[in-house]
């Protein structure tokens, strides 16, 4: 379509205006109107052909690249500027061809609208462009689904659909819809026409796209705990894109799109809170019995801490989600739970929102572990069981983002709790051994030394056989207990042996061996092999 043709149409329009004033009933005016209809049909056909034949240069990606309003395609997902070599040349060529096509379309659209054929122009434009947008969304695996259809999906299939949606929503907003909005803005001068076109083209597809998270979180009345991570990913995606969604769909006719995006965001928030609430309830109602080796970490401890450490990686997002959730005035746990973890009074800066939720979940976990420790047949084992599991919790907090969530004060307090539990274990399991050793071995008689050795040998063998029947996996916790026992036993016992050796100097080896069952080295070796499940 040459510029001369458009100029002729504009001349014809001016002639018609003049005739309308001077000769409103003349044959010339009728002839001019017929010519205008012919011209408009030709322009309409040309408009359609340019739109249809040049889709490669008018695709949303090309338009979004060439638009001065956005710069999404100039950066990668990490916000780093891409290499500007061959990419710059490609962008330059795309911009040139795209601009030529857009200029032609804009000239035709202006001519048709100014001559009263705007409705026909819009009809052609929306028909062609809507098919392109709908096809683009379909290729991104986004399709309209009902609540019942999503509810019947297998979890693995739904998981794949969610991951596909996460990619689709980013591409749709930052390429598909922004490109179409830019194209409408560049072709049509009238805001009302731009709004009508863009709304008709993009509204249905956008609502289908942003409605998907809402369908997912209503899949069932009870959600799997693992589902929370994909829900958080969807929340993050839609939250990050919301400013762009608001900008792209700023027309009144597309307000429903923004409303759907916010509605899905809110449903995702509700879903996260619900999943964590159900997770807490599941732990409270846990009725599993202790089985197997009680010296190991309980499966509830390992599973829960693995779950919470993954949640801590979403600290920023979850802090937003729980921003308006305030700490309860009292614990929601039953009074029978004897291992209630109080909230710190001097960490008010973090004892809100997400940190409170995490504190409560750990509170429930340790309360459950405390309850299960009552199933231990031996008191010393119950302390060992509690200390070992709390140690695992503390180590997971210290080694992950959980420390940022719970704070240093929380960590220090629970390290102290571990130490107290270890002290209680030593007191119950080894107190008779400690008591059998004299405070000062230099002031005792030969008869007393013999009695001390006999009592120590008896108590140590009894304690060691019992405690060594428990198997504790090699860990820093296990080594810390062994080291603590060695510090309390070996120096005193070695001094006792040295003193006894001086007193019994010149006596027969047989007589000495009758009372000295364990040498200091034997005791040290036994303690080093503690919790191996073996015997003396």
Give helix and strand order, one letter per element, not per position. Answer: HHHHHHHHHHHHHHHHHHHH
Count of alpha/pi helices: 20
Report the principal-axis shape: rod-shaped
Quickly give the structural class.
mainly alpha
Question: What gyration radius follows from the Cα positions, in whole Å?
Answer: 39 Å
Distance between the termini: 101 Å
**What helical percentage do the residues reach?**
over 70%
Major pleated sheet: none
Residue-averaged pLDDT: 80
β content, as a range?
under 5%
Return residue spans where pLDDT drops below 50 for at least 5 consecutive residues. 65-95, 329-350
Number of strands: 0
Question: Could you characterize what this model shows?
Answer:
- The chain has 20 helices and no strands.
- The protein is rod-shaped and about 145 Å long.
- 72% of the residues lie in helices and 0% in strands.
- The termini are far apart.
- Helix 9 (227-248) runs antiparallel to helix 10 and helix 11 (299-312) packs parallel to helix 14.
- The longest helix has 33 residues, at 155-187.
- By secondary structure, it is mainly alpha-helical.
- The model is unreliable at 65-95 and 329-350 (pLDDT under 50).
- It has helices spanning 3-22, 27-53, 60-66, 86-114, 118-139, 147-151, 155-187, 191-217, 227-248, 255-284, 299-312, 315-321, 353-373, 379-399, 402-406, 408-436, 446-467, 476-503, 509-515, 520-528.
Task: Note the topology.
Elements: H1 3-22, H2 27-53, H3 60-66, H4 86-114, H5 118-139, H6 147-151, H7 155-187, H8 191-217, H9 227-248, H10 255-284, H11 299-312, H12 315-321, H13 353-373, H14 379-399, H15 402-406, H16 408-436, H17 446-467, H18 476-503, H19 509-515, H20 520-528
